[in-house]
Amino acid sequence: MAHLLLILLLSTLIIACSSLVLSHSVVESLPGFEGPLPFELETGYVGVDESEDVQLFYYFVKSESNPKEDPLILWLTGGPGCSAFSAFIYEIGPLYFEVKQNDGSLPTLVLNPNSWTKVASILFVDLPVGTGFSYGTTSLASKSTDLQSCDQAYEFLKKWLIDHSEFFSNPIYVGGDSYTGITVPIIVQLISNGKKLSGNEVGIEPLINLKCIDGLNTYQILDPSCGVASPKPQELFSERRSVDEKSIELVVDRPSPCDSSLIHAYKLSHLWLNDDRVREALHIRKGSIGEWKRCASGLPYTQSIWDSFQYHVNLSTKGYKFLIYSGDHDMVVPFLGTQAWIRALNYSIVDDWRSWWVQGQVAGYTRTYSNRMTFATVKGGEHIAPQDKPVECRAMFERWISNQPL
């Protein structure tokens, strides 16, 4: 069972931490963006596991509003194996690529007026190991499971907060999309319990203030079917593309509807993050990663959890706050299925099914429950709704995080 987005708000609690090994750098400018960055960007690595042999890479954007008080969000991307950069550049981050026909030169970056960093600080983390710029220093460290990945996310957050103690008192949320509907509630339960699944914890710091189908594009049924979202590098810029139903590669001759699709936009991240100037600006460790891929296929990763229902039950009894939303044109995780497992929780309805509005138009439908759970659909939204409905999703997020009705 999976769903599109989960953000949770918990009460203040004390958790443990072991040794602290991490590195980070401030990024003041980026190739492809004109002038200095008008927001605060930090990148770095946090070593996790006993020997720090898993190095998790992150992008951190400080809130552009009031970072001393605004929420801090730990954000993960699905797959499993898709880089957090995908959320940074295509969904809720402060920049996006100017999409146009590209001759292979470095893509242009522009500001995203609908960035969630307008009202929150966000930690975008490449997880599990092997995703994006995260890597293992040994072959064993390069392997992971659902539960190991959750443990590592928990350890990452603790160590990052120790190194960024100014965020100790901020409300902290955990969120993600797609496959992370399975892992996010587990991570929150780890934080709530104050221990890893392995049970090995020492100390009592820091304080974490977690709060309050054939021929169809199954991710967005109205869009053209243009293949996978992370094509093979050799096929990114070829003049002619073919359809292979078994491997589901890119599609058809130019010009085609796919030239203006998200697949075309995804090419730009491959160009940008495999440029030496960009890697230097982001302080990527030389030799740690070869070719960057938006979504890594064939990771030595074991999916061991298929149902996170019981984690929702456990967390709901503690009064934690949830937002779950679904694009209503997604066939991969249809909103009707999400509604079904929410209904199975058997919580009473506080605010029954109704429309919610943005800019004078119906943006979707929502219902709230007695356990502080809010469910919302995004009208016309795809599997990752902020990609094609950024205005509506930002409005939804801002209203929910400030405790306003959608």
Can you tag this structure with a few keywords?
406 residues; alpha+beta; Rossmann fold; 5-stranded mixed β-sheet; 9 helices; globular; disordered N terminus
Task: Tell me about this structure.
With 406 residues, the protein is an alpha+beta fold. It has a domain of 215 residues: Alpha/Beta hydrolase fold, catalytic domain (Rossmann fold, 3-Layer(aba) Sandwich). The strands form five sheets. Strands 3, 4, 5, 6, 9, 10 and 12 form a seven-stranded mixed sheet that branches. The protein has a five-stranded mixed sheet with strand order 1-15-18-17-16, with helices on both faces. Strand 16 and strand 17 form a beta hairpin. Helix 2 crosses helix 3. The N terminus is likely disordered.
Tell me which CATH architecture of the domain at 7-214 and 303-309 applies here: 3-Layer(aba) Sandwich
Can you identify the CATH class of the domain at 7-214 and 303-309? Alpha Beta
Number of strands: 18
**Rg on CA atoms, Å:** 20 Å
Summarize the biggest pleated sheet: 7 strands, mixed
Looking at the structure, the CATH topology of the domain at 7-214 and 303-309 is: Rossmann fold
Question: What is the CA–CA distance across the termini?
Answer: 26 Å
Say what oligomer this is. single chain
- Helix amount, in percent? 10-25%
Q: What are the secondary-structure elements, in order, as H or E?
A: EEEEEEHEEEEEHEHEHHEHEHEEEHH
Would you identify the regions where 5 or more consecutive residues have pLDDT less than 50? 1-20, 197-204, 229-254
Q: How confident is the prediction overall: mean pLDDT?
A: 81
Our estimate of the beta-strand percent is: 15-25%
CATH homologous superfamily of the domain at 7-214 and 303-309, by name?
A: Alpha/Beta hydrolase fold, catalytic domain
Figure out the total of helices. Answer: 9
Shape: globular
The chain-level structural class is alpha+beta
